[in-house]
Amino acid sequence: MISLIVAFDKHHLIGKDGWMPWDLKEDLKHFRSYTMNKSLLVGRNTFEGFKKPLPHRFHYVLTHRDLEIHDESVQVIHDIQEVVERFKGSDEELVVIGGAQIYKEALPYVDKMIISLVDGEFEGDTYFPDFNEKDFETVAIEEKEGFAVHTLVRKEC
Ligand SMILES: NC(=O)c1ccc[n+]([C@@H]2O[C@H](COP(=O)([O-])OP(=O)(O)OC[C@H]3O[C@@H](n4cnc5c(N)ncnc54)[C@H](OP(=O)(O)O)[C@@H]3O)[C@@H](O)[C@H]2O)c1
Fold this sequence. Notes:
Elements: E1 2-8, E2 13-15, H1 25-35, E3 39-43, H2 44-49, E4 58-62, E5 74-77, H3 80-87, E6 94-96, H4 100-106, E7 112-118, E8 126-127, E9 136-144, E10 147-154
Parallel strand pairs: 1-6, 1-7, 3-4, 3-6, 4-5
Antiparallel strand pairs: 2-8, 7-10, 9-10
The structure holds NADP nicotinamide-adenine-dinucleotide phosphate.
């Protein structure tokens, strides 16, 4: 199973200067809780924004570069297909955690999206890619302080 987790505002803004445009501790807690003990697919830019790998999670870091990361919770990959094929149709969950480039490339394979819709408007430089909302059904909306968590699942063809 392949899922995707993101926080965006009503304009689908996700990033500013390599980090998020807002400071929402409650959303970081939600992110931590959803991703805990799972495998993550992350782009090199977003991964570099973390000070170190996220504890109790496995990271597939996508890059064109010949990166060496000596950490048993990290695997550097150069081909998104490699990972997608391993998880597609499997009971084990791969969570796509961004950023924008990785969301765009992974979206066609995503079964479920966990979207934090952040209240307010912000300035920034990175946006979630366009996607066809008709391909997904909203199955849950949970209101939180400063954002609401929308769960979308891909409609059966
Ligand atoms: N609001 C949220 O939920 C959220 C979540 C995540 C990230 N963000 C924000 O998004 C921004 C970063 O997004 P971004 O689009 O700049 O970067 P990104 O998607 O994190 O990483 C892009 C990098 O991934 C690698 N890559 C992409 N496609 C590849 C492919 N097909 N094969 C091999 N490598 C590939 C390349 O690395 P190389 O250059 O090394 O080749 C590329 O430069 C930051 O501001 C971050 O805070 C926000």
